[in-house]
Design goal:
The complex is a heterodimer of chains A (121) and B (225).
Chain A lengths: L13 H7 L18 E4 L9 H9 L4 E2 H8 L3 H13 L3 E4 L10 H12 L2
Helix pairs in contact in A: 3-4
Chain B lengths: L37 E9 L5 H8 L5 E8 L16 E12 L4 E8 L3 H4 L11 E6 L5 H13 L3 E6 L9 H8 L7 E4 L4 H20 L10
The chains are: A mainly alpha (121), B alpha/beta (225).
Pfam families (chain A): DUF742
InterPro entries (chain A): DUF742 (IPR007995)
Organism (chain A): Streptomyces lycii
């Protein structure tokens, strides 16, 4: 764990995240619920004058990328990434591909596909 | 020893660690095919230094990445950073990797500590997860008791993976099963977290177990052993 050793790293302080998200602390309730493994794909190219985070997101997701990967590459918390994605998804500039829906138990065909894929490793 | 212990590297993933100032994003060879439509996840749960990141790194097709979330030191109000006083926030990291299953499907592996307070940080970490690998170190079995109980409470199917540390004492599986108070139905498997094939087999054990659960009658009474 990277624990409480935060001294000297001001970029990660809450104030910065607050600025990045335009003052919002969580994604709007009307937005798509984003899982760590929701795949995000760009549907548009960056426009002049866009905030740098939006530009980075549109560039980065030329090919599908999970929310977790976006968080890792931008070095931003997942909750902050979710707020940033909300606007781009609402504008149709990006597309979200939801994970396989949660069920009590996964589908047998899905498991067979995963087993087949693992055997090819 | 080449075990990578993410937990001991608080600097990993921070901006200063990245060489140069290039555009963030995956290397082109790490891009998923455009045809990828959906993702599934498996959670690797284990105590500090038990080998979660090593396991993820062994099977992942990408170099393991680190996602982070902020939490207050009191561990409450994690969703709401508004109005929180300076320096009460802590960044908590979680390593993960990825395996492309086919042109449409991708599997993500998340390594998380055993403490439940971390699970709440990543909203829905276990929600929709296929299942979990509980990674244990026989030298510190006591840290795994609670993990097993918490997953049972949440109804998350899991298999127990014994990371074969070279210097760890070897215990018969049945002794470990008794010590962890595990039902007979829960598979246990030996694994070398540094070995790709061994980690793949552990994941396959989980998938086979899940497959037996999905095909078993819902109200089946477990066979007496």
């Amino acid at each position: 764990m990277s624990g409480a050793e935060e001294e000297g790293w001001d970029e990660g302080a809450p104030e910065r995240l607050y600025v990045v998200t335009g003052g919002r602390s969580r994604a709007g309730t009307e937005s798509v619920r984003l899982d760590l493994v929701t795949l995000i794909v760009s549907r548009d190219v960056p426009q002049p004058g866009m905030p740098p985070e939006q530009t980075a997101l549109l560039r980065m997701c030329h090919y599908p990328l999970s929310v977790a990967e976006i968080s890792a590459y931008l070095v931003l918390p997942v909750s902050t990434v979710a707020v940033l994605l909300t606007d781009l998804l609402a504008d149709g500039r990006m597309e979200a591909r939801a994970p396989i829906p949660a069920a009590a138990l996964p589908d047998a065909e899905l498991l067979k596909a995963v087993m087949h894929g693992l055997q090819n490793l | 020893m080449d075990y990578r212990i993410s937990d001991q590297l608080p600097g990993t993933g921070m901006p200063g660690d990245r060489p140069g100032d290039r555009v963030p994003g995956p290397r082109s060879e790490d891009a998923l095919p455009a045809s990828t439509t959906s993702a599934v996840k498996v959670v690797i749960v284990g105590g500090f230094g038990v080998g979660k990141t090593t396991l993820v790194g062994s099977v992942s097709e990408i170099r393991p990445l680190t996602t982070e979330e902020t939490m207050t030191q009191a561990g409450v109000g994690v969703d709401d950073i508004a109005g929180v006083e300076r320096k009460t926030e802590t960044t908590v990291a979680m390593d993960f990797g990825r395996i492309s299953i086919n042109e449409q499907l991708v599997l993500y592996l998340f390594g998380t500590p055993g403490q439940e307070r971390f699970w709440f940080l990543w909203n829905g970490l276990f929600e929709g997860a296929l299942g979990a690998l509980v990674l244990i170190d026989t030298r510190r079995l006591e840290v795994s008791f609670d993990v097993v109980g918490r997953l049972e409470d949440r109804g998350v199917p899991f298999v127990v993976v014994v990371n074969a540390f070279p210097e760890a004492p070897v215990h018969p599986m049945e002794d470990l099963r008794t010590a962890l108070d595990l039902p007979e139905s829960v598979p246990m498997v030996d694994c070398d977290a540094r070995d790709r094939g061994s980690c793949r087999d552990a994941l396959l054990t989980l998938m086979r177990y899940l497959h037996t659960l999905t095909t078993a009658p819902a109200n089946a009474i477990p066979e007496p052993q």
